[in-house]
Fold:
Amino acid sequence: MTLTVTGPCALWAAEKGFKIGVSVALTGIVGADGRLVKDAYTFWAETVNSRGGIEVKGKKYPVDLVFLDDKSTPAVSAKLIEKLITDDKVDLLLGGFGSEQVFAGSAVAEKYKYPLISGAASSNKLFERGFKYYFSTLGRATEEVRGCVEVFTSVEPRPRTIAIVGANILFTSLACEGFRKYAKEHGFDVVHYELFPIDLQDYNSMLLKVKEKNPDVLLVGSHMLVAMKVVKAMKEIDFAPRGVAFSYGPTVPKFVEELGKDAEYVIAASEWTPNLPYKDDIFGTAADLNRKYKERFGRQPDFVEAASIGGAVAQQKVIEKLGLAPPLREEDRVALMKGLYEIDMMTSFGRIHFDQTGANVDHPPVAVQIQKGKPVNVYPADAAEAPPLYPMPPWKKR
Amino acid sequence: MNLRIVIGLTSCAALIALPLFFGGYAIRLATLTIMWVGLATCWNLLSGYARYIDFGSVVYFGIGSYIAFLVMARLEQSFWVALILAAVASGLIALAIGIPTLRLKGAYFAIATFAFAEALKQVALEWDNLTGMSLLGGSHGATFPINTSSAFFYYVFLALTAGILTITILTERSAFGYALKAIAQDEDAAEGVGVNTARAKAQAYAISASFLGMYGATESYWLTYITPSSVFDVHITIQMVIMTLLGGMGTVLGPAVGAAFLYLVSEMLWARFLYVYMAMVGLIIIGVILFMPQGIVGSLRGGFPKPHKEA
Structure:
């Protein structure tokens, strides 16, 4: 499946613009999440093309995106990255969704010396392979969930016991480890810890075990589908701890659409909200980005979308700075890779500065809560739009 | 006969020369096609010839993958050591598992093998948690050293597939092959006329397991990253089954034709019809099974004699 996004000068772009390939899940277990990443890059490309394209040495080159569906499968992702590079002959790549997929794909990108910046894959291990061409605008998965734990240190009455469950795939199990680490640091008592299969059918039994231990707070390592199934099951078995937080899912618009009122009070990890003081010269402030995105897609961008846009902007800025005109050669991409390590820039997604492993350093994690159908920043206090609503009322009283 | 040899030799030469003329994606597609041809051929050896439907074949693919990880990443030995150990370990485990389970018949054997594969996936996922060792990586997955040569993996898969195809050709005309076919027709009668059915089944099961182990080891090294869910994925088994059914069970070329056909057709359909291609592939499978019940190769040949219904 090839989908291309081109500006007004599509024909011209095909010859002289930047051709950028993206292997991302559009179907399969993270298909719904992956389609957000596709929207994000599409939005970036349309915005850049509306100004004529990426400016290199005074001349503007439009952007032409090629999306291929990795079916949420790592092996397919590796195959598609190779296809994009050798068959579609793209100038550049951008990263897809999900750590497993990006894991397999990044090895191929590394082999062909293509920088791969991802805004939706943050598992710690991705940064431990000594790769030079892999970058992530998100923080490490274990750090990303810090806000979700710390938000519970500021509520009254302070919870004492925490249960942690999560799907046993890479990202979500790391999120669970992060939950456990910060829960212990803040003196919470972890009364239950369980990883379950990603394709688990019966969430009710799994959560009944948790309910029996009566934790004050439930923390869940999740993707969108897992998060939705957990909330549905909690309602079915009438399990309402005082607080519940997810590593990923509730910020995806579909979560609120599907669950409606049941999504209220749910907390989620995030790395971006529109009220944060971030900005760049392409999208304006974080609030501007939010507004324009809403005009285009009829919904707020998720933090993964903002992070994906941030990565695309970072790559664009280095290309402009180094004056790399398409078609890019291998030495151009090597220069781009080196240039990416040197940047320390502000974007509408926030600060981007990669350490020597390719991880974005010091990206403060925030926690959001679904309040009146919208994700609202509730932590840290100095960035919060509203205080967290706590405790969550029992299901029967809603 | 001579024409056959000429065609055979020309195809071999073309396959060997392929990486000299193509690179990147084309070689990757060719490599994957050859891998699936091999996997379906492995499945065919026991399930196709003896009609012992194995729904857990992926378990040896997974075992091979993790043996390779232990040998290459933990013990820092070469890929060749890993490949040999993957074959030996998978074969031995298959014997240990096969000798009791191959006494089961029909659906019971299928259920037992399926359960074994699912159980081992859980073991791989939970091993580190349960033992407190940091050995397999659990749900965090396992990473391999990186080999960037496309041609390397192409030739390894080509050699493996040539190997299992040669074994299948030899089987077809040997006493071993006749024993398997006799089991498919009527196991009790075969036993009655002196065929050592237990031995033939165990042999076929272990040979195919050894190769599956080597395929797993090679694919994992190629992808550089595995998780229990990816290498013990039941869809791998299902794909082998469908490919063999499409091409023709119990024939030499059936699984190869079925695998190449299904892999390339779904690749082409996928490229054009992202959201509906699965339904289209499903229709094709249903069509082939309805109109060519002996599979593509079986039907072209006028059919392999129908097995006993109970088998």
User: Anything to note?
Assistant: The CA atoms of residues 123 and 131 of chain B lie 11 Å apart. The beta strands of chain B are 142-143, 225-226. The longest strand of chain B covers residues 142-143.
